Structure formats: C-alpha cells, structure tokens
Here is the input.
Amino acid sequence: MDLVLPVERLARAGETIPGGDLAMFAGGKGANQACSAARLRGRVAMIGQVGNDAFGARLIASLQEASVDTTQIGISARPTGCACICVLPGGENSIIISPGANAEVVPESTLPNLDCLSAGAFLLSQLEIPLATVEASFAKAKAMGATTILDPAPVRPLSPALLKNVDFLTPNQSEAAALLNDPDLQIADYDEAERVAARLAELGPAIVLKLGGLGCFVHVGQVRSAVEGFQVPAVDTTAAGDVFNGAFAVALAEGKPLLEAARFANAAAAISVTRSGAQTSIPSRNEVDDFITRASTGVVRP
Here is the structure.
C-alpha cells in the first residue's frame, strides 16, 4: 500500500515540516507491473503475499479490477507491505519501503506457482521480495523457455547466478549508478546514456536503461539506440518505471519489434506520470494506442 504525502521539499534529519493531505493508493512494484500488463491486454497472473489485514484485501481487489489472476497470492501472518512516498512539486518522489508480507515470498512457496510457464511466457520481477526467490524463479523460468525481465529496485548487488538468467535488465538512472558503483554518474543526454548502457551490458543481460522524460536507451545485442520519450506535464512519477516494464513485456509478447516495444512502453509511462498514485495512474490499452497515434501528428497531451 502506498502512503503518499505531497511536500515542498524533503525533511532534514531531526526536522519536522508540513505536508499536504495524505492519500493511500494500491501499489507495490510487482503488483504495479501486473496491473500495467493486464490493463494493456496482457494475460497476467500475480505471485506474491499480502497480510491478513485491510490493506491486503484492498490490494487484491485492485488487482482483480485490472483482470489480474490473483489465485497465487498468499496470505501472510506479517502485515501487508507498505511504501511511504514523499512527492515533490515537480512530481519526483522519495520512497521508503516496509516489506512486511513481501518477505514471505520464499522459493519453497513460489516455485510451484511457476509450473504454468511455457515458451513465449514472460516472468517479471523486482527486488521487493527476497533475492533468493528471484534467483530461483528466474532459473526455473529460463529452463521452461520463458523470457525474464528484472527491474533492479530497490537496488542491491546482483549475483552472477541471477544475472545469467536475466534477459532484460531495466534500471533507471539512480539504479544504474548503484549497479556500476558510480555515485557521481549523471545522464544528461543520449550519448552519455549509450556509454552507461554499454557499461551495464558488461553485467550480461540486455539493457533497457530508463531515462525518465528522455525516454530510454536500448542496448540489446547489436541494437544500440535511444528511444525518445514524450514530453508531458508530470504530476507524480510513482510507478512510472513499473508501468514501463509491464507495457514493454506486453509489446514484446505481441511480437512488436524491440524499439517499437520500447516506444510503446515510453508512451504508457508518460501517461502515468500525468496522474497521481501508482495503480490509479496506469492507462488502458485504448489510451496508449490513441496517445501514440496523436503523438505521430505532433499532439502528445494525455
């Protein structure tokens, strides 16, 4: 559950500052990706855990409203995971995660749920669940012929055992800096993005580097290309990266060429940042298709 508070700036240590009205939105990176893919007409099942509490019930209901199969979501004795999100005036945010029930998504309970995977399927994950579960799940998915997409957030070191089974790694700029152990890394243009993507590619997977309003940079095999973003008025960037990943997976599953899939994902993410919240910001397939059509004529307002 996302607990969202508008602020003029972030508080310093020991400081109390005023904020706007608190709002609650259904969230969670994995659930956001699932909702994104489902609203864009993907056939999606979610594997995870929530607590036996009001937040858990609300999160499951939000997934079901998006037509996500929730039969593989378990109920944990731990509380439902939460995120405390401070949103700045320009839409950028700062997030603190309390994993709660997400920590109960362990390999023993997760792997049997992957038996439905087959060649042509996609498995998406992030790092809000135990790393051992992601490693084991991706190994099984690859053995079954599925394609794996990893959003390395919240960022942490990635083991060789995991990286060898990641098809697409999709960091944003701050995650790229952490993965490369380069805290001073800044990406101001596509030339710098190309250099950063090349460094990330040395980790092994194909790279789709998310660049916010700039779009993304794709470094996949011999394809090295920037895919421009769409300029829109940002309200809240929460879940934009999750929306991108869900849309990217759907486009690839439909057989769209790589760069077209990245543009489709850019469009879905662009629409999402014009709205508040996580799952409440995710667009429908008709909205994204219409947005891309209008963008081709120079009109990109959501």
